[in-house]
Write a structure and sequence with these properties.
The chain contains no helices and 7 strands. It binds zinc ion (ZN) (2 copies). The site of one zinc ion has 8 residues, from loops.
Length: 80
């Protein structure tokens, strides 16, 4: 098992995870198929205690050889 990098933020609107500190002041911008970029703002979750290792994939980001849907392939789920 490899330790995967911890997200820094969660989108308040769509629940996407943010990894880039530079973009946390901007809108989320993630797209689901065919829709407009998400205009949600980021909720900062940049402490280790904000996250738990994903129980579905045991923190690997992969479940049954696919991207883990529980943690969006990150290996982490929000602690609250
Ligand atoms: Zn979003
Ligand atoms: Zn997972």
């Amino acid at each position: 098992m490899t330790a995967r990098s911890l997200p820094l933020a969660i989108c308040a609107a769509c629940g996407a995870y943010g990894y880039d500190r530079q973009t946390l002041n901007e809108a989320c911008g993630s797209r689901k198929q065919g829709s407009e970029p998400c205009g949600g703002h980021w909720l900062k979750r940049d402490r280790f205690t904000d996250w738990l290792s994903c129980h579905t994939c045991k923190g690997t980001g992969y479940f049954e050889a696919k991207r883990c849907p529980t943690c969006k392939n990150s290996g982490w789920v929000p602690a609250r």
